[in-house]
Every structure is written in structure tokens, then in C-alpha cells.
Amino acid sequence: MNIQEKLVTLIDKYPLVTGGFFLILGISYLIYKIDKRESFKMKDYSSASWKALVNSWALIFMLIIAGLFIIFR
User: pLDDT tens digit string along 30-41?
Assistant: First the structure.
């Protein structure tokens, strides 16, 4: 059994635990990013670091949405 099959089995058998784990990861990362108080002005960043900032916020929302989706599926 490979990792992908184990992950699918885990999501199917324990959706509350898996969804809760994604929610906890997303919310804890959200709290961390809010506590950091980073500037949202483009002039404070280079192009690569601005992309990293935007991608980190996208990852936060994807983790939260994935957790909710797994729980309510």
C-alpha cells in the first residue's frame, strides 16, 4: 500500500480527525501570520517574496477549506 492509498483510507475512515487536523493547521498558521504583522505594501517586498507572501495566505485558506470540506463531506 503506497502513501496515497494510506491517505485516502485515513480520510475515508476518520474524516473528523483528518478534517480537524487540516483545520488546526490552517488556523494555527493564520494566527502565526496575523501575529507577525507583515506589511501588505508591494514596495516592501521583492517580486519573489511578494509571491511567497501571497502563496502563504493561499495555503492558509486552502487548509481551512479542505478541513471543512473533509468534515462535512
Answer: 999 888 877 677
